[in-house]
Amino acid sequence: MQVTIKCPSCNTDSSFFLVKDNLVGPFRCWKCKALFTVKVSKGELITCDPLNEEDFTKAKAAAEAKRKKAKEKTA
Ligand SMILES: [Zn+2]
Predict the structure, then answer these.
(1) What is the residue range of 53's domain?
(2) Distance 30 CA to ligand 1 centre (A)
């Protein structure tokens, strides 16, 4: 499913593909580099909260660790 997120600070659309139609995670605008926590439900953007660099890094690391764990489980 393709989701489009409009950056609240520069109004640029970013679109990406989701395997599932729900997502809560860090997002970085490709244009202005602003950081946000986005929440997507059923392919639609629900919330887009500004995030600071530190929290973004943390959230990204947590998401990556989760992905790694899931990968190990299936491997
Ligand atoms: Zn932006």
Answers:
(1) 2-74
(2) 7
- When divided into structural domains, the chain yields a total of 1
- Kindly give the pairing relationship between strand 23-28 and strand 35-41: antiparallel
Q: What is the pLDDT of residue 44?
A: 87
CA 56 to ligand 1 centroid distance, Å:
15
Reported as a single tens digit per residue, the pLDDT across 12-31 is 999 888 888 888 988 999 99
CA distance 37 to 28: 9
| Beta partners for residue 50, in sequence order | 36
Predicted local distance difference test score (pLDDT) of residue 30: 94
Cα–ligand 1 centroid distance for 8 (angstroms): 7
pLDDT over 90 at 75, yes or no: no
